[in-house]
Design brief:
The structure holds two protein chains of two kinds. By secondary structure, chain A is an all-alpha fold. Chain A has two helices and no strands. In chain B, strand 6, helix 7 and strand 7 form a beta-alpha-beta unit. Chain B is globular and about 60 Å long. Classes of the chains: A mainly alpha, B alpha/beta.
């Protein structure tokens, strides 16, 4: 409630604007969660990849 | 080719890369006027007045700013003068710089440079932190022993998209050596045979390389041909070079100025014996410092850290296949 009041007073948000922004953010987060939950688990061989750009096949970088 | 100091070689490499790539800038203390405590960036402030910044002496703030800059398209060198004080920036180095690529697939092209190793100044300025950095996934760790490699490795580091911990031994910053002119690059992760030999392999890095070469010359007079390997990069390690050498000599001595317990030499000993155990004619021997903070008293320092006599004793022990001789 504090954020809503601050934005409405300082930023001059119109009536309903705050609720619209919150609903938009909620929808984006919900979509991201749904995407993540519907996605397959990553292949196990990727656990050790993407650590460095340098050639991961160097013997010192197993 | 010209004979310049290791600090000058670093400065040459940085200057060439800054001329080549406008995204490189330097952040640290005592840099603009003084060029750093070891003159490692002398003249860089005048040459690039908009790209060299003196910062308040907060290692955490400097590395934080560097990580942020690298995520926004720049290539910072954060110069900490003494790597000992990277301890004040460990969250930024280990929890941020080292992990961002893995977590968000974004490169962190930052070089964190500092002097390392033992050269007086007592305990708090004489930490050997290289094994800890090399233990951290996401960091590359280099420690050159010659001016030529210093230039080549800093140039390669500044073209890497990974965070690089660049360690320069305090005692070596004034060491002179020939340095190739122009675009001299030393690839990260590649060691170098400094002296070929057939009797025993002695692998080391940093300040101990020249001591290893001195000992090797002495032992040659006794019929012992020591192959001296300069690791140059501590992560990734050039294990292939070490294994090739051990297949030839059958004996391996590893030397580091860092405390032996949990050091990089322990990792190499384990890795090499896993790969070429049946080529070994003697136990792998590690030479390192005592498990103590570095004392202030010079005689105590000499007693605590490896000297040429320690290397020589270890090599003889390896040749006699009796590690109890060390």
């Amino acid at each position: 409630m504090g954020l809503r009041l601050a934005l409405e007073r300082a930023e001059g948000l119109a009536d309903g604007e705050y609720d619209r922004i919150v609903a938009e953010v909620d929808a984006e987060v919900d979509a991201a969660i749904a995407f993540a939950e519907s996605s397959p688990w990553p292949p196990l061989e990727t656990a050790g990849s993407g650590v460095t750009e340098i050639d991961p096949n160097l013997r010192g970088n197993p | 080719m010209s004979a310049i100091t290791l600090s000058q070689a670093f400065q040459h490499g940085v200057q060439e890369e800054m001329e080549r790539d406008e995204s490189i800038f330097v952040l640290g203390t005592d840099l603009v006027e003084r060029g750093g405590h070891f003159a490692q960036l002398k003249g860089i402030g005048a040459a690039f007045p908009d790209r060299v910044r003196d910062a308040p002496i907060s290692e955490a703030a400097m590395v934080s700013a560097g990580v942020g800059a690298s995520l926004n398209g720049l290539r910072p060198i954060v110069d900490l003068n003494f790597m000992d004080f990277a301890l004040g920036a460990m969250d930024e180095i280990i929890n941020q710089a080292a992990k961002i690529r893995y977590m968000w697939r974004s490169g962190v092209p930052i070089v964190v440079r500092g002097t390392a190793g033992i050269a007086g100044y007592a305990a708090q300025h004489n930490n050997s932190l290289e094994a800890g950095f090399a233990h951290t996934p996401g960091l590359l760790v280099v420690m050159p022993s010659t001016p030529a490699d210093t230039k080549g490795l800093i140039k390669a580091s500044l073209r890497s998209d990974d965070p690089v911990i660049f360690l320069m031994h305090k005692s070596l910053t004034g060491k002179r050596g020939e340095v190739p002119a122009g675009d001299h690059l030393v690839p990260l992760g590649v060691g170098e045979v400094r002296r070929p030999g057939t009797s025993v392999t002695l692998a080391t890095y940093g300040v101990l390389v020249s001591k290893a070469l001195n000992v090797a010359e002495r032992l040659a007079g006794q019929g012992i041909e020591v192959e001296v390997i300069d690791l140059r990069t501590l992560f990734p390690l050039d294990l292939e070079l070490l294994e090739q050498s051990v297949r030839k000599t059958g004996r391996l001595v590893l030397a580091s100025e860092a405390p032996r317990h949990g050091g990089i030499t322990s990792e190499i000993a384990a890795s090499v014996q896993e790969a070429v155990f049946y080529y070994l004619d003697a136990p792998v021997i590690r030479v390192g410092a005592q498990h103590t903070p570095i004392p202030h008293s010079p005689p105590l320092v000499a007693a605590a850290i490896p000297e040429e006599a320690d290397l020589e004793r270890a090599l003889h022990a390896s040749m006699s296949s009796n590690p109890e001789d060390v």
